[in-house]
């Protein structure tokens, strides 16, 4: 049962070591620069870490069949989300855009037709991520999609540590003894989707499925989670995956 | 700006002072905010910490404290804080703590400064130049019914029109005959079609000028023009005119802009009348004057009682026309005094002439000319010293009874504290009254003065005016030299305190408790009036009206620079708020009262009321310090 495996003792991956090793082995200059910027050490308190909330809107869930439509990010720290430094791009998906995802992401066909390929924004995107710890809600989208997209364009992929606000919620609401008891009683599981999670912290309802708004929403959610269940002193190693 | 910050932009755009920002500024603002989350109980601003940001509450609730730890304010979604520190020394003066889980938008100082520079409303709101209350009161004044009433409503007759060939003397005769003060001068149609029109008999004319009373002085008499000169020689060019469907307000502006007192009103191109500046002034006060003349036409107490609904109608109209509280208070007091006077006239007609001279004295709000629509009667009789109780009191009791019952029938309820001329204690000769006042001032205790402070607003409504004037003189002379009396009055003026402000749908008290409504008289106007009275007594003012008293106080050094102005604006705002809520009550067919419910208070009004409460609260603190209880009873002279 995957839930049980997740709940077993988490091992702390050596992300700074991994990034340093990649910096030495990659050849594309963009990636060399990206990996060389490294990431904070595992014992860095979360309160001192430079963070960046990232959200991708995609045409589907499978990075092998679907494509990135838009990218939103906003740099932040535990105390401040700096909207002035926000970035947002619409990119032309390498695979056709279905009508369903048009309605979902509020991005129109014509907007997409005029948009650049992801490759043209990569220097800026990787520059904005470099040296910062990426924060996402549900890491199984952002990381694999970005890795695949970069690999296609630069010949080599990117991998990086993330703090996943959804798995922080899952630790509370899916893996705890209490939640397992609830499940055993036949009660529906608590939703850990972005919007539902935010409501539990008194955060306002934002219009979802916009890459920048979701990035902002994710950054706020992490601030709330740390303020509620952790502390600014909590080391990154306990939070990232 | 990109569409993606709509979430932030739209939210801020709903709350003052951001609601009045241009779209461009709002976009700029939304793009620059920083966001921070605070768990309930977490500090947002710590005392003396350096700040360079304005704080905006996106969700949650925040409590702001004074330096000494007292609760200063409780704020909710859409409220701002931190601007006082930003505008002063960048040190936090009022620490803030999250009361609930709270999301704050921080607005960087550079953006804040830019908003202050480019948006006057924003600057007013954060009190950059002038107090927020002052601009609110001024705006209230501007939002006047004059804007929507058309100027044709002021016209009562067609204009006097004379041909250019008419002699000066004949023109003067026609103007006098029509009891007018101006005439339009007409000529045969010429080269100026703009001023050409056809009269009711289809004859074409061209208007070539206006002749006013002052022209006869400046152009005829002063320059020695012959009486048989044609008026055409007097007028220079076609007059400035206004269309009949323009607003009264526009007419007034046109007159002021061009420094003229007469303004011809045209329907298309045909003159239909001339408005004089005094017509506009008269219009402003018309309805209450009409009611007053109607009061004096009544021949019975029953007839007077039937006018009670008219008082409400006149009140609503005065408010809708945008009058300020001073005008409304004085009009309602005039109406109240007129009822009183007429009732006395009717009583005298029935009971016969008074055996000795008397003065009917009014107290409280009527004496101050600050009456509201919800009011009771406070009155007394000051009789001649020739008064002999055994012989004369039956007459004056009957007189007082008629007035009191008559007033009650007109809607002025009986005084709960029995401050009425029907009470024997308050139906006394002048010498006894002097004794009362001497005793109150010489042997004051807060307890004794609690029920007699109403007599320190006193005015005559009818009869021997000098009786009450002597009492006013006595008070004005004695009070400033009696620190113990002033201290006792000051102590009583602190019995009623304002609330802190509003929070969501509640009234916030200083101890953090919530109430569902607030009595704006008890918690606002009355304590304000009380404290102004103490200062007025201290400076020997004979004025009864609070605004007049503030004028007198302003001529002394009693209050620090600018404090008097603040009190004036605060009182005006509190009084107007109370009046507006009474109008709402009347319009929704409820019995008007002095309560306001937070859900009926608009955002901007909340902020202004909160400011007014603050002014009152500070002024009360000063009062305590200014008129301390002497440690030993002061020796009286």
From TrEMBL, chain A:
Residues 50-231 form the Exonuclease domain. PANTHER family: DNA POLYMERASE III SUBUNIT EPSILON (PTHR30231), PROTEIN NEN2 (PTHR30231:SF4). SUPFAM superfamilies: Ribonuclease H-like. It comes from the Bacteria. Coiled coil: none annotated. It holds the Pfam family RNase_T. This is 3'-5' exonuclease. NCBIfam families: PRK09146.1 (NF006602). Keywords: Exonuclease, Hydrolase, Nuclease. InterPro entries: Ribonucl_H, RNaseH-like_sf, RNaseH_sf. SMART domains: EXOIII.
TrEMBL record, chain B:
Residues 155-227, 235-291 form the CBS domain. InterPro entries: CBS_dom (IPR000644), CBS_dom_sf (IPR046342), cNMP-bd_dom (IPR000595), cNMP-bd_dom_sf (IPR018490), Diverse_CBS-Domain (IPR051257), DUF294_put_nucleoTrafse_sb-bd (IPR018821), GlnD_Uridyltrans_N (IPR005105), RmlC-like_jellyroll (IPR014710). PROSITE patterns: CBS, CNMP_BINDING_3. SMART domains: CBS, cNMP. Signal peptide: none annotated. Residues 17-115 form the Cyclic nucleotide-binding domain. Keywords: CBS domain. Pfam families: CBS, cNMP_binding, DUF294, DUF294_C. PANTHER family: CBS DOMAIN-CONTAINING PROTEIN, CBS DOMAIN-CONTAINING PROTEIN CBSX3, MITOCHONDRIAL. This is Cyclic nucleotide-binding/CBS domain-containing protein.
């Amino acid at each position: 049962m995957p839930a049980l495996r997740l709940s077993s003792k988490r091992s702390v991956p050596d992300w700074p070591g991994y990034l340093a090793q990649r910096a030495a082995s990659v050849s594309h200059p963009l990636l060399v620069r990206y990996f060389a910027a490294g990431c904070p050490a595992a014992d860095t308190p979360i309160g001192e870490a430079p963070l960046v909330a990232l959200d991708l809107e995609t045409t589907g869930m499978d990075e092998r069949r679907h494509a990135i439509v838009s990218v939103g990010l906003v740099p932040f720290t535990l105390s401040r989300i700096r909207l002035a430094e926000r970035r947002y791009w619409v990119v032309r998906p390498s695979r056709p855009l279905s009508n369903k995802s048009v309605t979902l992401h509020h991005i129109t066909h014509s907007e997409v037709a005029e948009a650049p390929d992801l490759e043209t924004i990569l220097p800026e995107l990787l520059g904005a991520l470099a040296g910062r710890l990426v924060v996402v809600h549900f890491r199984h989208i952002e990381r694999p999609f970005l890795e695949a997209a970069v690999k296609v364009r630069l010949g080599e992929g990117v991998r990086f540590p993330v703090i996943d606000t959804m798995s922080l919620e899952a630790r509370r609401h899916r893996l705890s003894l209490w939640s397992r008891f609830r499940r055993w009683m036949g009660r529906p599981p608590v939703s850990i989707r972005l919007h539902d999670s935010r409501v539990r912290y008194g955060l306002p309802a934002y219009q979802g499925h916009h890459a920048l708004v979701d990035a902002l929403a994710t950054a706020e959610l992490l601030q709330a989670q740390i303020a509620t269940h952790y502390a600014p002193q909590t080391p990154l190693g306990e939070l990232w995956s | 700006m990109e569409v993606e910050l709509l979430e932030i932009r739209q939210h801020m755009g709903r709350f003052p002072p951001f609601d009045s920002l241009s779209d461009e500024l709002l976009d700029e603002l939304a793009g620059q905010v920083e966001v921070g989350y605070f768990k309930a109980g977490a500090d947002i601003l710590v005392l003396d910490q350096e700040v360079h940001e304005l704080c905006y509450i996106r969700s949650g609730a925040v409590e702001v404290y004074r330096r000494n730890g007292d609760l200063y304010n409780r704020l909710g979604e859409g409220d701002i804080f931190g601007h006082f520190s930003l505008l002063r020394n960048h040190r936090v003066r009022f620490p803030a703590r999250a009361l609930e889980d709270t999301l704050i938008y921080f607005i960087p100082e550079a953006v804040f400064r830019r908003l202050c520079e480019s948006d006057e409303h924003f600057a007013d709101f954060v009190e950059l130049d002038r107090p927020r209350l002052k601009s609110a009161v001024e705006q209230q004044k501007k939002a006047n019914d004059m804007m929507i009433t058309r100027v044709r409503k002021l016209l009562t007759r067609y204009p006097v029109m004379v041909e250019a060939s008419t002699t000066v003397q004949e023109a003067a005769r026609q103007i006098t005959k029509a009891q007018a003060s101006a005439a339009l001068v007409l000529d045969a149609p010429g080269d100026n079609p703009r001023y050409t029109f056809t009269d009711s008999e289809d004859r074409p004319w061209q208007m070539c000028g206006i002749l006013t009373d002052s022209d006869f002085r400046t152009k005829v008499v002063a320059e020695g023009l012959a009486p048989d000169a044609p008026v055409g020689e007097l007028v220079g060019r076609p007059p400035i005119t206004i269309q009949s469907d323009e607003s009264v307000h526009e007419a007034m502006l046109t007159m002021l802009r061009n420094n003229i007192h007469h303004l011809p009103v045209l329907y298309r191109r045909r003159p239909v009348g001339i408005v004089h500046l005094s017509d506009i002034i008269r219009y402003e006060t018309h309805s209450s004057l009409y009611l007053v003349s109607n009061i004096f036409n009544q021949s019975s107490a029953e007839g007077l009682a039937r006018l009670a609904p008219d008082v409400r109608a006149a009140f609503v109209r005065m408010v809708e026309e945008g009058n300020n509280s001073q005008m409304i208070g004085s009009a309602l007091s005039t109406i109240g005094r007129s009822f009183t006077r007429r009732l006395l006239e009717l009583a005298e007609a029935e009971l016969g002439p008074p055996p000795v001279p008397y003065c009917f004295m009014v107290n409280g709000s009527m004496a101050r000319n600050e009456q509201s629509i919800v009011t009771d009667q406070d009155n007394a009789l000051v009789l001649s010293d020739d008064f002999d109780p055994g012989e004369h009191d039956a007459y004056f009791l009957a007189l007082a009874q008629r007035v009191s019952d008559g007033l009650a029938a007109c809607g002025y309820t009986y005084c709960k504290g029995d401050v009425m001329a029907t009470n024997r204690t308050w139906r006394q000769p002048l010498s006894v009254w002097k004794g009362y006042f001497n005793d109150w001032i010489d042997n004051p205790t807060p307890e004794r003065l609690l029920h007699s402070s109403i007599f320190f607003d006193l005015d005559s409504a009818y009869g021997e005016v000098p009786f009450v004037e002597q009492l006013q003189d006595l008070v004005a002379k004695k009070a400033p030299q009696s620190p113990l009396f002033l201290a006792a009055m000051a102590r009583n003026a602190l019995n009623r305190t304002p609330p802190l402000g509003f929070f969501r749908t509640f009234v916030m008290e200083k101890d953090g408790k919530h109430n569902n409504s607030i009595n704006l008289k008890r918690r606002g106007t009355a304590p304000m009036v009380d404290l102004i009275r103490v200062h007025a007594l201290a400076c020997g003012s004979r004025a009864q009206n609070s605004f007049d008293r503030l004028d007198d106080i302003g001529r002394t050094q009693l209050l620090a620079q600018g404090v008097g102005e603040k009190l004036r604006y605060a009182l005006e705002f509190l009084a107007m708020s109370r009046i507006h809520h009474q109008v709402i009550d009347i319009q929704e067919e409820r019995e008007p009262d002095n309560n306001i419910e937070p859900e009926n208070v608009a955002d901007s009004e909340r902020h202004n009321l909160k400011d007014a409460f603050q002014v009152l609260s500070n002024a009360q603190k000063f009062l305590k310090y200014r008129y301390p209880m002497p440690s030993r009873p002061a020796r009286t002279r």
